[in-house]
Amino acid sequence: MSAALIESELFGHVKGAFTSAVSERPGAFEAADGGTLFLDEIGELPLDLQPKLLRALERREVRRVGSNVTRRVDVRIVVATNRNLAREVERGRFREDLYYRLAVLQVAVPPLRERPGDIPLLVRHFEEGLRPRSGSQPSLSGDVVAALAARSWPGNVRELRNALARALALGTAGGAGGPPAPAVPSEGAQGPPAVDLTEPLLAGRERVAEAYERAYLDAALRQTGGNVSRAAELARVNRKFIQRAMKRYGLRGDGGAEGGDADG
């Protein structure tokens, strides 16, 4: 969405606020008054709208686009993102004050590859919803479900659902290997990383970047004996970046730090 449309969706607008505003309309905050508002992909919110969201959260009031009147709202906010918001803050792409205002209680949802036991349950759930109303198609066999549970699913639940929808639509879900998952194999240890064409490009790039960053910082901390200041000099970043990354990746200093720099 454009920033103007997002603002209107969140806070509403009055008649004549913009060209297509032919009538007054409440936004999501007002509609959710007394309940819960779920904002998906909060990491995509444009920077210029982030202060407005922060103000709504802090003051518990909203102002429709084109209006000077504020309205009180009582809303529980739940947000989700596939971005690392702490890193987005470091890169200047997400406001630090908004991040801490939202991060009251954090729930990390592990990727499917870390919870394969959930995959059979998800498969049966999606299978029920995706099956034609006639019910003519047989249920997926146990072998097919087991094959699905053995995959890594870099695109997580969305990828799993799409694979099932494609397989059921094409009538290929009965094969021993389950729905196809094309991938280009790695070119060897010294070549580029493995590419999975079922994974979105930006998600894959972020995953590879995180793996490299973790390995780099782990090596830097080992070389400097766990000294955060020296590791920061080696990486040419500030100490705060190193400390946040250590917490994010669960890295620990190995001792030998000066002035209490090492964590662990």
Would you give an account of this structure?
By secondary structure, the chain is mainly alpha-helical. Helix content is 43%, strand content 7%. It folds into three domains: 3-102, Rossmann fold; 112-170, Helicase, Ruva Protein, domain 3 (Orthogonal Bundle); 201-249. The chain has eleven helices and six strands. Helix 6 (119-130) packs across helix 8 (156-170) and helix 9 (201-223) crosses helix 10 (228-235). The protein is flat, with a radius of gyration of 24 Å. The chain starts with a helix and ends in a 15-residue tail after the last helix. The model is unreliable at 175-190 and 255-264 (pLDDT under 50).
Rg measurement, Å: 24 Å
DSSP summary: helix tally: 11
Shape: flat
CATH superfamily of the largest domain: P-loop containing nucleotide triphosphate hydrolases
Spatial order of the strands forming the largest sheet? 1-2
CATH fold node name of the largest domain: Rossmann fold
Mean pLDDT: 81
What's the CATH first level of the largest domain? Alpha Beta
Distance between the termini: 44 Å
Which CATH architecture of the largest domain would you pick? 3-Layer(aba) Sandwich
| Helical fraction | 40-55%
Task: Please report which band the strand proportion falls in: under 5%, 5-15%, 15-25%, 25-35%, 35-45% or over 45%.
Answer: 5-15%
Largest sheet properties: 2 strands, antiparallel
User: How many domains, as an integer?
Assistant: 3
What order do the SSEs take from the amino end to the carboxyl end, as H and E? HEEHEHEEEHHHHHHHH
Low-pLDDT stretches? 175-190, 255-264
Count of individual beta strands: 6
Strand-pairing-aware structural class: mainly alpha
